[in-house]
Fold each of these.
Amino acid sequence: MTDTTTLTDKAVDRQELESKVKEMYRQVAEEPEGEFHFEMGRALTERLGYPPADLDRIPAQAIESFAGVGYYFHLADLKAGESVIDLGSGSGTDTFMAALKVGSSGRVVGVDMTDAQRTKAERLRDAAGFANVTYLKGYIEDLPVEDAGFDALISNGVINLSADKPQVFREVARVLKPGGRLAISDIVTERQLPEGITCNATLWAACIGGAMQQDDCYAAIEAAGLRVVTREDNPQYRFISDNALGASEKFGVKSVSILAVKP
Ligand SMILES: C[S@@+](CC[C@H](N)C(=O)[O-])C[C@H]1O[C@@H](n2cnc3c(N)ncnc32)[C@H](O)[C@@H]1O
């Protein structure tokens, strides 16, 4: 992760967070039948709004490890021939969804720091013949791609995990073309989380501890130079462990989908 100092740095140990996130999402890739704070898999994707006909065209093993928090493709409005980057692409569900929409004349790049996730996504891509999808090892705070190279940037349940969200949004602004869109689903809170939660790297890795207060999140997107166009709540998404449910009810931890554009 980057060295930039932010208020959130004081709340969580970055190295501990990175190793917890990598271990949690290695398990998501390799042992999706295990117990997690959050739901995964096909039933979740359908409840969030993924069209079953699209899901039928995506490798089932990618969907088993789907750990997203919402559906935003109606906001992304991807068109044939477009270039798309997915931040925290995991086992690949959203990169395959994007590939269906941009077609063979478009391209999709997935970036993820967890080797097990990328390895699984690459294996599934090769078996299913998604020739226009590439995966890169990297951090969302320091994207390994060119400036202004993408029509759209997508991400699902990932930015809340970053210890430097303002830097992530600066990277979003850097890699989008003028007129490019950010379309994401992520976890935010209605009320600011207390340090007891934000210092807990395990709750952070479970997509709760790192969630930004919603107005701060929209302000950080706009501070990076993007204009927020649409915000939607995703009440279909809910946490499942008691620990996570308790925090989510007390502080209004919730899933939202956001569309923003780079002027
Ligand atoms: C909740 S999962 C979501 C994965 C995928 N978007 C999906 O919907 O299934 C979060 C993913 O983001 C990756 N990730 C978390 N923090 C990251 C960071 N700072 N840089 C790169 N990848 C990160 C994790 O390795 C994990 O694969």
Note: The radius of gyration is 17 Å.
Amino acid sequence: MCIRGESRMENRLYEMTARRCSVRRYTDEHIEDAVIEEIMKAALTAPASFGHHPIEFVVLKDKQTIKAMASCKRLGGSQIIGADAVIVTMGKPDRGEFWIEDSAIASSYILLAAEQYNFGACWVQIRNRIGKRKSSDEEIRELLGVPDAYAV
Ligand SMILES: Cc1cc2nc3c(=O)[nH]c(=O)nc-3n(C[C@H](O)[C@H](O)[C@H](O)COP(=O)(O)O)c2cc1C
């Protein structure tokens, strides 16, 4: 089968998407800041509704903060404790009606960009999830000092 003249086997994007899978156990390999920057550049190319770009990111590398972050979600997020980096995706609802869609697309770009650099990654859902005492969203905003206008 041909996609715009290129055979599937030669299509690097197809190969990358076919290879990508969620990875929840990590080695102690360090991700260079320059690679994180390239991954974030890819995230910033994601389409955004009306071109409003209501999405902001926080990159966490500090082990203690990552551990504290893991406890902001009761179930299904503890794998981040072993990660070298965590990228928190946030939207500003008053800047874009479709901030959830925009965040999801940017997050998908991040997963693909990580794959391109051969780093395992996994989406951890925060919206509509609960932490120790409050919503995951509130606990993360408290932990990271994120302004109220943003949703995680
Ligand atoms: C919206 C969304 C939320 C997800 N939430 C979590 C999560 O909280 N924890 C987790 O370990 N994986 C989560 N995942 C990863 C999915 O479980 C995973 O993509 C799915 O099982 C398919 O596996 P694959 O990514 O290896 O193809 C989420 C994926 C998406 C798209």
Note: The mean pLDDT is 93.
